[in-house]
Amino acid sequence: MTDQPGRGRMRRGIRILLILVVVLGGLFVAADRLAVSYAESQAADKIQSAKGLTDRPSVSIKGFPFLTQVVARDLNEVTVTVDNVTASTGGVSTDGSDPLHVARFTADLHNVRINGNFSSAVADTATGTALIPYSEVTKLAAGQLSGAVSNVAVGYGGTTSSGQGQVKISGSVQVPFLGSQQVSGEAPVDIRNGNSLALSLPYGVGRLIGGQTGMSWPLTGLPSGITLSGVQATPQGLQVSLSGNNVQLTG
């Protein structure tokens, strides 16, 4: 004869055990999410302080569970977004470095290995974008064309027949016997040597200022291992693509 009371007690025990597992699992998830939220907040504060940023960056640490990633000192993926940051370019100022305003910078870092005291890290791979407003491109172009072209303006020039974005450059040029003449035209923008923005000059503009064909500006201050992989002219500004391997992230 089957021991019905015994089987009932076993079923109740199993139910209690399952409830405990669910509760403990829920507590672990809650603790894990609290830990990742705290870590994201602390990372954002540290980046803002270290870089002297006006706006607080957004930091998102992905992957679950987070606590085991911390123990292993290896984060699966970290996304950092910063508004209103300043980079620099090799320019015409006396110290050879002109400030460059970046409206928004976003980086996706993969397999981020943290050192023993969590003060620095290395990302196996990284991709990102930087949005440079046309007001900044105008400033750079005006600096290089100073003395040859006045009232320089750079803006969005629409797309080519193949759908590639381009910029429009305009300005005033002094022409012998004709005086000041307004010139303008569309031109492509691209990446040179993996570290410089290159802007071609429309044929008419270049011919009037001695045959100059274009301008370029190296971007400095990027983390070690990061290169410029592409650029697209958009209505909002130049959208620069970034990529890298073994990217060094200092504290």
UniProtKB/TrEMBL annotation:
Which top-rank group of organisms is this from? Bacteria
Which Pfam families does the UniProt record give?
LmeA
Q: Cite the InterPro entries for this sequence.
A: DUF2993
Name assigned to this protein: DUF2993 domain-containing protein
In its UniProt entry, the species of origin is given as: Streptomyces humicola
